[in-house]
């Protein structure tokens, strides 16, 4: 009975660890897309300010 | 990088103490684990909202592109499916334990889902909202200065965010960088820290000068022709070039190349020149030595720069053509100039 309980616990831990690892992998990929999008927007904003400053200095 | 991995593990296996774990029924355990899975899923939408807000505050017209939306949605769907699959697999074990289940039904209190609030992102959002101003077409010098202030704000926020994303906070980045720098070796991520820290410091200094009402940067004691705009452009390039995310292949490298050391030394020299420019009249010789090291680095000829057997960059900046380890010499000059 005790062995059966222990096996079951082990199996639960394995399923959980596997699921969490996959979610962590997905989250890493998700963060990379978000960070790249943010970088794009930052770049666009800075470019816009640069253009305005350039226009003003002419 | 360990912290890179750990950064993504905000919600980890919530293991109760050994004693209560002994008494924990399968149902309790499964509820706890399913709660953790749910919390992990919540992190996805929280992150998306946080970035959406940051983007809108950087530029009110900004939004995710179609391609970005599709990629994000695809990952969200996969995460949802994975969470459901794992939770369902875990819950299958409940039915195998009728006696414990009966006991648990009376005693189990639903495990609250741990919601990881992105406090930093919220603070950032508030700051951005405060700093955000509707762009106007600047025409007067005052309006031009306002444009420069806006640019400085964007750059400061970008450098801070780079550091916070990577190290948790600007202060943490500074501590890690200083500690590694003392040990004499710097990984690419440390170069990233150095570039963003020095850029942030410089931008803040420029912001302060602009706030004080200086019209431009030409009051520099060395009569440098630099302007607020040229300085901000330089910092913008420094931050952009530092992009650690674009050089993952270098993440594991611990041996610095000559070029990496040269870049680090150039940053260090610039920091010292900036730090002690005001005291140059009292300590001209030591300050002048720093400038000569900078010149030697810029020259980068076989008579001015070489790599010694330990892989360290040495420079020669005096008539006898003697080479010294650049980093050590700069550290000594820093101490002399600071009076320590």
How would you describe this structure in keywords?
heterodimer, A: 58 residues, mainly alpha, 97% helix, rod-shaped, B: mainly alpha, 2 domains, 3 strands, 65% helix, extended, disordered N terminus
Mean pLDDT of chain B: 72
Mean of all residue-level pLDDT scores of chain A: 83
Give the strand tally of chain A.
0
**Structural class by sheet pairing and helices of chain A:** mainly alpha
The count of domains of chain B is 2
Rg measurement of chain B, Å:
27 Å
- Please report which band the strand proportion of chain B falls in: under 5%, 5-15%, 15-25%, 25-35%, 35-45% or over 45%: under 5%
Q: What would you call the shape of chain B?
A: extended
What does this 3D model show about the protein?
The complex is a heterodimer of chains A (58) and B (340). Chain A is mainly α and 58 residues long. In chain A, 97% of the residues lie in helices and 0% in strands. Chain A has one helix spanning 2-57. The longest helix of chain A is centred in the middle third of the chain and has 56 residues, at 2-57. Chain A is rod-shaped, with a radius of gyration of 25 Å. The model of chain A has no long low-confidence stretch (mean pLDDT 83). Chain B is built from 13 helices and three strands. In chain B, helix 8 crosses helix 9 (188-211) and helix 12 packs antiparallel against helix 13. Residues 1-19, 97-119, 133-138 and 245-255 of chain B have low confidence and may be disordered. Chain B folds into two domains: 2-119, no CATH class; 142-338, no CATH class. Helix content of chain B is 65%, strand content 2%. The longest helix of chain B is centred in the first third of the chain and has 33 residues, at 26-58. Chain B is an all-alpha fold and 340 residues long. Chain B has helices at residues 2-7, 18-23, 26-58, 66-91, 98-107, 119-131, 141-167, 170-183, 188-211, 228-241, 258-276, 284-299, 326-338; strands spanning 305-307, 313-315, 324-325. Chain B is extended and about 85 Å long. The interface between A and B is large, with 42 and 60 residues.
